[in-house]
Design goal:
The chain has 308 residues and is mainly alpha-helical. Helices cover 68% and strands 2% of the residues. The protein has a two-stranded antiparallel ribbon with strand order 1-2.
């Protein structure tokens, strides 16, 4: 009965709020997806943080710093949304660090040149927006509201990345080569961010029934490809896919086969930077222990002063 009422509410596009009744599996599904999303934002700071000290101008440095700081903010909104489901921040961090929780595969690729900051903003944030615009309509209230704010900031991120790519593509032949190389390395991992093909996506059934996901992985991937091809053409770069071709009948681009062995290998912890990313997170978390303790003590002290 409760389950039926819950589903009716979802079907009527009403939001589920933290204190509402929800099936155990809906709660678990949300904790998994929102926490993975939060971890992606936090781990995603590393490949870009790598270039803050080497940004080519003060303007570029300020913009990159602001972007990386935004990602930290996104992680915090998402951890807070996840905590409304009855799990603590400590547990979430533990699940990330011991490998039980995932984060986006894309952040296990290295950022080798300044042009990679362009490719990450343009393609990775670009892919994230396509996914997250759709998630603004997710059925869980706190996740949905978090997505609205995050999407606004992601669209600035996407533009800063595209600006870097455009400047480099219009620069010296060597700069153009760097931009093309970054596109070559980030194209396939970016389109794999949308997850496995629908036929291989075990979570999609429940996610769509409960309106946690609002569009299929393949649908979102196609949308991203359709909108990105023209952007590459405008700045004179070539997408590294010989099978990419406009299909007049479908009104979409056809594209080549993704390397699913590579995708699953990265997802399962064997990508080029998986170990490095987690080690870095563990070190930063342990170095920050005194700050967390001091903040807790301070807030305890404040509370006891207020009650006295
Ligand atoms: N990477 O049944 P499926 C950002 C896992 S970051 C790793 O399709 P689902 C940003 C999947 O979790 C953007 N794992 O699952 C930050 C599942 O494993 P489990 C991050 C992946 O959940 C800084 C299994 O494969 N965005 O914005 O229905 C700088 C089966 O897959 C991936 C989000 O996280 C992957 N790419 O669909 C720049 C959005 N793909 O949990 C940008 C929220 C799949 O069963 N998440 N897996 O062990 C989602 O929308 C969905 O979770 C996904 C996957 C579309 C990613």
């Amino acid at each position: 009965m409760k389950e039926q009422q819950f589903q009716e509410k979802i079907d009527l596009e009403k939001k589920i709020e933290p204190k509402d009744w929800m099936p155990v599996d809906y709660r678990k599904h949300l904790i998994r997806q929102i926490s993975q999303h939060a971890h992606s934002e936090i781990i995603g700071m590393q490949p870009e943080g790598n270039w803050i000290s080497r940004a080519p101008s003060l303007r570029a440095k300020m913009i990159l710093l602001a972007k990386v700081q935004d990602e930290a903010g996104h992680g915090l909104y998402l951890y807070s949304a996840c905590e409304t489901l009855g799990i603590s921040r400590e547990e979430l961090v533990e699940q990330l660090q011991d490998g039980k929780a995932k984060y986006s595969s894309i952040f296990n690729y290295p950022t080798l040149s300044w042009a990679d900051m362009g490719a990450v903003g343009w393609l990775v944030d670009g892919a994230a927006i396509v996914n997250q615009v759709s998630l603004q309509r997710t059925s869980y209230g706190p996740y949905s509201r978090g997505m609205v704010k995050i999407c606004k900031e992601e669209s600035f991120h996407q533009r800063q990345g595209y600006e870097i790519m455009a400047d480099m593509a219009n620069g010296t032949p060597q700069q153009k080569e760097m931009a093309q190389d970054a596109l070559n390395r980030f194209w396939w991992p970016s389109i794999m961010m949308f997850g496995p093909q629908d036929s291989d996506s075990p979570r999609t059934g429940n996610a769509m029934k409960w309106k946690i996901k609002r569009q299929f992985n393949d649908e979102l991937r196609q949308k991203f490809i359709d909108q990105t091809v023209g952007q590459a053409e405008v700045i004179g770069l070539t997408i590294p896919d010989p099978d990419l071709k406009w299909n007049e009948e479908k009104g979409h681009y056809d594209f080549g086969e993704m390397d699913w062995d590579e995708f699953w290998s990265v997802v399962n912890g064997n990508g080029p930077c998986n170990i490095q990313r987690l080690e870095h997170h563990k070190k930063a978390h342990s170095d920050g222990k005194w700050v967390r303790e001091a903040a807790k003590d301070y807030s305890k002290k404040q509370k006891s002063t207020e009650t006295n």
